[in-house]
């Protein structure tokens, strides 16, 4: 008997203005990179490996690749504030509040990491151009799903 295990990822990005009104919502599939696959395999045998706990945003539109280990042009990081496990799905949520980062940026890439700096990148995606002003907030909801 042969069984197949696949890992899929999807990210919902929500931009809210200073009054909390939803300005933009984008849903994108992401790439689970080689380091992320290794981290997940390591978690099967060890509790010593840190779990995904930070989402980072950047400004590079360079194509995502399996060998990526970090964002190409990192601009800011936010701690995961909510983790939900539901059957074969894990969901991580982070908020980039007003002032994070301190200047307006065009978000082009995002990554899920196990540390605020350095560490292992689990997955990366290209967001398309998303404008984050100093007064706006951006929520990223990162979903990882295991399918057999």
Describe this structure in words.
It is a single chain. With 148 residues, the chain is mainly beta. It has one domain. Helix content is 7%, strand content 53%. The radius of gyration is 15 Å and the shape is globular.
Query: Structural class of the helices, strands and pairings?
Result: mainly beta
**What's the tally of helices?**
1
As residue ranges, the low-confidence spans are none
Distance between the termini: 13 Å
Helix content: under 10%
Using only CA atoms, what is the Rg? 15 Å
| Shape call | globular
Largest sheet: 9 strands, antiparallel
Average pLDDT rating: 91
Record the strand order, biggest sheet.
2-1-9-6-5-4-7-8-3
| Count of beta strands | 9
Q: Please, how many domains?
A: 1
- Strand content bin: over 45%
| Secondary-structure element pattern, one letter each | EEEHEEEEEE
Output the keywords.
9 strands; mainly beta; 148 residues; globular; nine-stranded antiparallel beta sheet; 53% strand; single chain
Question: TL;DR of this structure?
Answer:
The chain has 148 residues and is mainly beta.
Helix/strand layout:
Blueprint: E1 6-16, E2 22-29, E3 31-32, H1 34-43, E4 54-58, E5 74-86, E6 89-96, E7 105-113, E8 121-132, E9 137-147
Antiparallel strand pairs: 1-2, 1-9, 3-8, 4-5, 4-7, 5-6, 6-9, 7-8
């Amino acid at each position: 008997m042969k069984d197949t295990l696949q890992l899929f990822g999807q990210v919902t990005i929500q931009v809210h203005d200073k009054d909390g009104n939803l300005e933009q919502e984008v849903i994108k599939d992401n790439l689970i990179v080689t380091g992320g696959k290794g981290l997940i395999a390591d978690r099967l045998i060890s509790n010593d490996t840190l779990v995904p706990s930070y989402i980072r945003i950047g400004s590079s539109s360079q194509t995502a690749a399996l060998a990526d280990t970090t964002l190409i042009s990192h601009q800011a990081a936010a701690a995961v504030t909510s983790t939900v496990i539901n059957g074969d799905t894990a969901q991580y949520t982070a908020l980039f509040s007003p002032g994070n980062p301190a200047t307006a940026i065009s978000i082009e890439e995002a990554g899920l990491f196990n540390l605020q700096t350095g560490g292992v990148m689990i997955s990366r995606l290209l967001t398309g151009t998303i404008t984050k002003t100093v007064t706006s907030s951006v929520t990223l909801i990162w979903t990882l799903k295991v399918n057999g």
